[in-house]
């Protein structure tokens, strides 16, 4: 499976970091994911009605490792449809696909809101809010021992 990225030709520093974060996620590069985020980083999966708790940086890295195991280490295919930027934030509209030899494949359309620290020597991501297709999250999550809360990618 290959990654599909529609990178901007001349991205701002924020957009470049957000795009590289998604690329590192697709390749399961945990070291890079950690380098792109602040120590206070949080990941919020929405809609809130799914009941997926907000994750800290450590919890999110652990979740991504579990997702990698569930997908048998196969890379994620992430298609970027659109990018919109504002001061200290970047919105990216994506489609994420992942599969394993058994179980429900991951097929989720999502919009990620990356928020960035306001200052610092190297601007990092302080939070991500993911607005995802609820039905797809539930379908994928129902194929795991933890149910829908197992997702929240």
Describe this structure in words.
A hairpin with an 8-residue loop joins strand 5 (106-116) and strand 6 (125-132). The chain has four helices and six strands; from the N terminus they run ααββαββββα. It is of the alpha+beta class and 153 residues long. The longest helix is centred in the N-terminal third of the chain and has 14 residues, at 13-26. It is globular and about 45 Å long. Residues 144-153 have low confidence and may be disordered. Strands 2-1-6-5-4-3 form a six-stranded mixed β-sheet. 27% of the residues lie in helices and 33% in strands.
SSE string: HHEEHEEEEH
Shape: globular
Low-pLDDT regions? 144-153
Q: What's the arrangement of strands in the largest beta sheet?
A: 2-1-6-5-4-3
Total helix count? 4
Distance between the termini: 19 Å
Record field, number of beta strands:
6
Helicity, in percent? 25-40%
Radius of gyration: 15 Å
Beta content: 25-35%
Query: What average pLDDT do the residues reach?
Result: 85
Structural class: alpha+beta
Instruction: Characterize the largest beta sheet: strand count, sense, and whether it forms a barrel.
Output: 6 strands, mixed
